[in-house]
Sequence to fold (299 residues):
Amino acid sequence: MTREKTITVLNGWFMLVVNIAVLFVGIGLLIGFIISPIHADKVHGLPKLDLLGSGVLVLGLAVFLFYGHFTLQPNEARVLILFGAYRGTVRTSGFLWTNPLNTKRRISQRSRNLNGQKLKVNDKRGNPIEIAAVVVWRVEDTAQACFDVDKYEDYVLIQSESAVRHLASCYAYDHGAENEITLRSGVDEVSVALQKELQDRVSRAGVQIEEARLTHLAYAPEIAGVMLRRQQAEAIIDARQKIVHGAVSMVQMALQDLAEKGIVNLDEERKATMVGNLLVVLCGEAEVQPIINTGTLYT
Fold:
């Protein structure tokens, strides 16, 4: 793999002064050529052609040198290529100058957001799901980004989609085994795994992954309705369990208080009746209508 080589170039303001000086020299030579017929040899009467040639060459050199100027903003780099050979990378921001024959390729090293599209994949259990992720990345090695891959932006995009697909197939959407990480419950763990896999895939392009997180996670439309009813049923069961557990605790507390305070002595049959009535009141969804018993439990 190609490795980045940082180089330094000349200050652009210093070279600008030199370029202007060379330009004025060329202009002076041309002016000298124009006025040379006045002082030309009286025998031949010809101007000094050497002034013309020198002036044209110096002016051409000045124009040529002006093409070596370029600017760099913070978090930007320029990759210099001379006749197909990699010369180095300039990272110093400001007004700079280099050999005009160098090809200068601009590379931004600022952080970028890649908002991935929704992908339809199968999770670990084979359920079709929709998943999408956002990736924050930046170019770390400019030489690898330029020479080791073709169009590093497209490379990062394709590898990100591939990593998200592979990640989805390694985890269940939800309802995993005990202590099993799922896509819905283990958000932090899944994000770390996605970032690590992405980094392994795009390292060849000299790219650094700063963050990767899921932005969309849902069942595919064809099974979304069935899974929604399943989740609702499980939620109802969990709620019922909590209600029954709380009702049993309250009945136990009521019987214990009645026995400790000696308010009434209940035999087993009356206790069973009282427990049944309290559970109906505490666990029922509708409002309870009391019925007054004017007799006894035994008649």
